Amino acid sequence: MSGVELVLICTHGALPVRDAAAVVVMRPQEPESFYMTAKNVSAKRTRNIVLAMVLGVVLVLTVIFVGEMAQQNRLEAATPELKPQATAPAGSEVPPKEVDLARRTANDPLALGDVDAPVVMIEYSDYTCPYCGVYARKTQPEIVKKYVDSGQLRIEWRDLPVIGEHSEGAAVAGRAAGQQGMFWEYNDAVYAAAPERAKADLSEPELLKFAEKVGIPDLAKFAADLKSPELLALVEADKNEATSLGLNSTPTFVINNQAIPGAQPMEIFAQVIDEALAKAK
Q: Could you give the angle at the alpha carbon of 278 between the alpha carbons of 265 and 135, nearest 5°?
């Protein structure tokens, strides 16, 4: 029996063997045998650690790949290619499939950013649209700070009054403010006060209150311009342009023939803008 020794211990002098106490003494394993066992355990442990590390790396790479695919799918779903309608309302022309919507009008009161910016983003919005308000309050300031202020992007506003009875009147009011050089101040004030999940009440008395709040210089002129047929015609022209492109919801943004519908997160806008900037080089 390896490593075990049976020892008989006799007490009180010479007792017969049958009266002796039997003690089993365990001897330690031989040094070489012990070393081999420890070595095997260590090797197995090392293999397990390496295997765990490999599996961990594979798992991380899988998560990254799946995440990138999900992000790409999300971007494609969020930014469909702009496809003009096959038919358009009477009196409007069907634009070609590849259409440049940027006007780049110098001193345009309805535009933000350098007229020569490499990329132009067209914004189709409605003042009574709650999601337009979400974009205006949360995402637009980030876009302006990162891209407009740096001269990389120009934003051009288009009216698309489709939500409610006050949509058209509010659009005219925005342009009336623009007549006095305060379009974006008025725009910001209206959206800042807009409810999160409901249409804003933008009746004429409310529109006049916003004009007073932002400091429109000539309130009498502003009130008169609310009835201006010329400003209403400009609003309707914007709406017809959107309709000819198949755009009927707000907000919708167009960058290089790519539509971004809805108040998407900043990362969606950044990806589309960055791609457009890369193409513009």
A: 20
d(CA 60, CA 12): 74
Tokens 């017809």 correspond to 240
Predicted local distance difference test score (pLDDT) of residue 240: 97
Q: In sequence order, which residues have a C-beta less than 8 Å from that of residue 207 and are 6 or more positions away?
A: 169, 170, 173, 226
Contact 272, 79 (CB under 8 A): yes
- φ, ψ of residue 191 to 5 degrees: the values are -75, -30
Q: How far is the CA of 271 from the CAs of 131, 187, 276, in angstroms?
A: 20, 26, 9
Q: What is the pLDDT of residue 37?
A: 55
Average pLDDT over residues 68-90: 46
Which of these, 272, 229, 216, lies nearest to 81 by C-alpha position?
A: 272
- Name the DSSP letter for residue 81: B
Instruction: Give the integer Cα–Cα distance in Å for 170 and 168.
Output: 5
Cα 191 from Cα 189, distance rounded (Å): 6
The answer to whether residues 242 and 248 touch, using CB atoms and an 8 Å cutoff, is yes
- Report the DSSP pairing between strands 119-125 and 153-159: parallel
| Cβ burial 240-276 (10 Å sphere, 16+ → b, else e) | bbbbbbebeebbbbbbbbbbbbebbeeebbebbbebb
Contact present, 244 and 93 (Cβ < 8 Å): yes
- Reduced to 3 states (helix: H, G, I; strand: E, B; else coil), residue 51 is helix
Residues 16-64: pLDDT tens digits?
433 444 444 444 444 455 445 555 656 666 666 766 666 666 665 555 5
Query: Which pLDDT belongs to residue 51?
Result: 65
Q: What tokens does 223 get?
A: 């009130």
CA dist 172 and 225 (Å) reads 8
For residue 194, the model assigns a pLDDT of 93
